[in-house]
Amino acid sequence: MRRQDQYSEYRSVIADSWSRCIAYGLDHDHQPDTVSLNEAELAALEDSHKELLSTTETEVLPYYNNIMSNSRCLILLADCQARVLRSWGDKRITETHLKPYFEVGSNWQERNSGTNAIGTAIAIGASIQVQRNEHFLKLNRSIIGSAAPIFDTDKALVGVLSVCSDAYLPQAHTLGMVRLLSQSVENRLLIRRLGGQFFILTLNTTADNIDSPWSGLMVIDKTGQVVASNQRADQLLGETITGRNVDQLFIESRNRVLNQPENSPIQLTTSRKVRFSGLLKRPVANHTEVPGASPAKRAPKAKPKKREAAAGPLSLEDIEHGEPAVRRCANHAMKVLDRDVPILITGETGVGKEVLVKALHGASRRHDQPLVSVNCAAIPPELVESELFGYEPGAFTGARSQGSLGLVRKAHKGILFLDEIGEMPLSAQSRLLRVLQEREVTPVGSTERIPVDILLVSATNRPLAAKIEQGDFRADLYYRINGLCVELPPLRNRKDRKALIQRVYREYRDDTQPAELAPQVMSALENHSWPGNIRQLVNVVRVAVAIADGEEVQLWHLPQEFLAEYEQGAERRDRPEPGVTPLPDSPHTDAPVTDSSRATDADQSDTMSQTLVVYQQCMGNISRAARQLSISRNTLYKRLRDLGVR
Question: Shortest CA distance to 436 belongs to which of 464, 410, 458, 456?
Fold first, then answer.
C-alpha cells in the first residue's frame, strides 16, 4: 500500500471514531466517569483475568522493565471491555488531571472516553496510534497513545496493550513495539493453553528469525488439522487457517511435517509457492504418533540436503549449465563486485536471485566474511529502521536493554543483500542512502557515526522505475544501488533447462531412485512454461520424489496443479496461429470445419484432460482409473498412449 493511501486510511479511522463519539452524544468538553473499586471488586476483576494478567507480566517485565524506567511512558493492560487491569512504567505521567483514569477499573471505551488508543483499538479490532489532537475529548489531548489488541486461541478479543506518554517518543517505533508486545502475549497464551497436547509449528520467512515474536504459530492435531493459530500465521499464509489441514496448506505431506524431529528446521512451501522455514514442537505425551505412518517411518532423522553435505559453498558453476545469459550475469557481477560497485539483480519471482548472491559471495574476496540477507518485505514497516541500522539501549519504548547492532553493522566487511528492496519504506530509504554515501551508520537514538565497510547487492522483481514515478521509491537511492544491473532470465527461456531439471532432481531424489528422470517425465518438465520459475521447479520435483516414495518418478507423481498447467499449455501449443491454415495430416483434415466438429474437438480435449487427472489421482493404477472413468482398460491404454504417458 502506498504511503499516501496508508495515511488516508489512518485519517479515515480517526474520522470514523469521531463520528461514533458524536453519535454517543459526547462533546469535546465531556468529562468521563471515574471508577473507584473496593477491595472485593478489585479482587474479582483480577481473578476473572488471572491468565491474561500473569501471561502479560511474564512477557512485559523481563524485557521492558529497564526501558520503562528510562522512558517517560506508561504501559496499560486493559480487558476486552476497555477496563484498566494493570499498569507498568513511569508513574509521573499519572500525576496529572488524568490520574483517576489510569486507575485499575477505569473505563476507556469510546462511549465513555471518546477517541483514544485503547477504546478505538477495541472498536476496530486492530492496532492504532492516536496523536494529541486526534483525541475527541480535550481532556486527553496532552498524551499520545498507541495500542494493539490481544486475541486468544479462538481469535476472540481478550485485552488491549497500550503505551501512552506526554513526552515525544519515536512514534513509528512505539506503535511497532506495542504490536510486538501484544503478539508476544498472544503467543504465550496459545502455547500455555494448547502446547502440551498438540503439535506447535513455528513459521517464519527464514530460519534465522524463527524464534522471533513475529513468527507464525500453528497448533495442529495428530490428524494434521489446524486447531488454532496466531494472527501472524494467518498473515504469512494469506488466509484464515484454523480448520484447514496441513496437506491443504503445504506441498509437503502431513506425515513429513508432523514426523519432523524437534529442533530440526524444515523447509515448507505453500500451495501458493511461498517458502517458509519451520520448527516443530511435539506434544508432551511421547506416545503421540501420526496415523498412517509406518513404524519404520515414524520420527525419521532429518535427511541432510546433498548441497549441505557437500564441501564448500555454492559456486558459480552450480547456477548455470550452459545458459549464456546466466553466465554473462555471473561474470559481469563478479568483475564489478570486488571493485565495490553495487549490484542490482532483477528478474521474475523464483528465477534464483538469492542463489546467485550466495554464489557471488562464495567466489568473492569476502567469502570468509558474513553474507547478511534481508527480505525488506518481511520486516514490519515500523521496525525496518531499527532492524537495519540498530539502536541504542533505551532508544524507544520496547527496545532491548542492551540495544541492537543492526543488520548493516552485522554485514561489516562482508556483503549486505537487500531482497525486495522496492518494499522498503521511504523513511528507511533516506537513512540507507546516507549510509551508502558516507559509509557510516548512526543507530536509532544515537548521534555517534560508526564506520561500516559493506558491499551492497539488491534485488527486485518489480520495475523500480514505476515505483519512482509513483513516489514510493527515491530516485537518488535507485541510482546509488544500480551500479551494475543484471537480469536473470525466466526458466522458460533458458537453454540449459534440461540440465537444470536433471540437477534439481539429482539433488532431491532418494538413493533408491534412478539417477535420470524417465523420458516422458523429462519431456513434460522440459516443455512446461514454468510461471513460478526455478522455485516452482524445485517444489514440483520435491513433491514428485516424495509421492514416488523411493520408486521411479512417473508422470502421475507430478502435482495435479502442474498437470493442469501442462495440459493448458499443450492446448495453446497445438492451437494454430491466427491466419495460419494447418497442413493436412490425414485424408480427412481438409474437410470444412463445422460447429459440431469444433464441439467434438473440445469434448475430446476435455476427455483427455480428465483421463490424465484421474490417472494421476489413482497414482498410475490402470484398473482403478478405468473403473472411475467407466471405460475399459484397453481404452485407457489407448488414451494414455495418445497422451504420451505409456
Answer: 456
